[in-house]
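Researcher: Quick test of sequence recovery. Tokens follow.
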């Protein structure tokens, strides 16, 4: 807030209406339809902001917010009030550090369902538990973890301009859960690339652990195997025609943006040992 204190709430003129502003989709009741956007609003309400947040609901629905941008740690909105010059509302949150993101990425890569849900536009229901297991919080735990300010003369936080920004921010989380993660410091593209790399490495390591080294079965690899003739690894295991692919390096080899092992595996699996 800009410095302003006169002992009473500043008086405003009539709000200048906006024709092409950003409007909340919700026309009545709560704003935010998914559990994660509602969770964000609930967190703000838990900080004692509930009554002040409601002041901005009409602003959000009337389209008084001219623009909204989100980047690492910072959300900035221009909100049209009663003065000709729009107010600038800012909501800042601390981004996770690089080591923290490395821990998060390894944890997410270990759960295929998490990446699948994120790609489908959903936030996994227990993702907060995963963050908590790492000693982190996806959503701010205290009001001190967030900073809000506005160029309007109102001294209360949040003012209606900030409140309208909070509601539209929650709806942006509805549309794309990656926005929450981007706010915390990792864009959709960077996160997915890291998960693809980590999951490719994990699959290769797991595959090598399952199959005996190729150097130990060169003489018998192309022979038809039976359970009784197997002497390497698990005696009940089945020798797979595509096991040789498991010996490739842990770093995936790509051909036209596709994993070479994934391209070759169907052909190897189609091979039938001769009697």
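Model:
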């Amino acid at each position: 807030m800009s410095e302003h204190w006169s002992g009473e709430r500043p008086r405003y003129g009539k709000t200048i209406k906006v024709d092409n502003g950003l409007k909340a989709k919700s026309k009545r009741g709560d704003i935010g339809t998914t559990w994660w956007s509602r969770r964000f609003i609930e967190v703000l309400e838990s900080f004692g902001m509930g009554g002040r947040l409601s002041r901005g609901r009409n602003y959000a629905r009337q389209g008084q917010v001219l623009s909204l941008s989100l980047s690492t740690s910072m959300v900035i909105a221009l909100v049209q009030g009663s003065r000709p010059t729009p107010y600038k509302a800012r909501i800042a949150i601390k981004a996770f550090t690089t080591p923290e993101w490395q821990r998060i990425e390894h944890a997410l890569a270990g759960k295929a369902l998490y990446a699948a849900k994120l790609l489908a536009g959903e936030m996994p229901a227990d993702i907060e538990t995963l963050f908590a297991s790492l000693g982190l919080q996806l959503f701010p735990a205290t009001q001190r973890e967030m900073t809000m300010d506005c160029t309007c003369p109102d001294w209360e936080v949040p003012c209606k301009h900030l409140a309208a920004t909070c509601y539209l921010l929650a709806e942006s989380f509805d549309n794309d859960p990656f926005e929450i993660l981007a706010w915390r410091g990792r864009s959709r593209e960077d996160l997915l690339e890291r998960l693809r790399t980590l999951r490719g490495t994990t699959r290769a390591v797991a595959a090598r652990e399952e199959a005996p080294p190729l150097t130990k079965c060169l003489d018998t690899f192309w022979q038809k195997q039976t359970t009784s003739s197997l002497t390497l690894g698990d005696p009940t295991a089945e020798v797979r025609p595509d096991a040789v692919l498991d010996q490739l390096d842990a770093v995936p080899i790509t051909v036209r943006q596709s994993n070479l092992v994934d391209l070759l595996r169907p052909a190897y699996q189609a091979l039938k040992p001769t009697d």
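The chain has nine helices and six strands.
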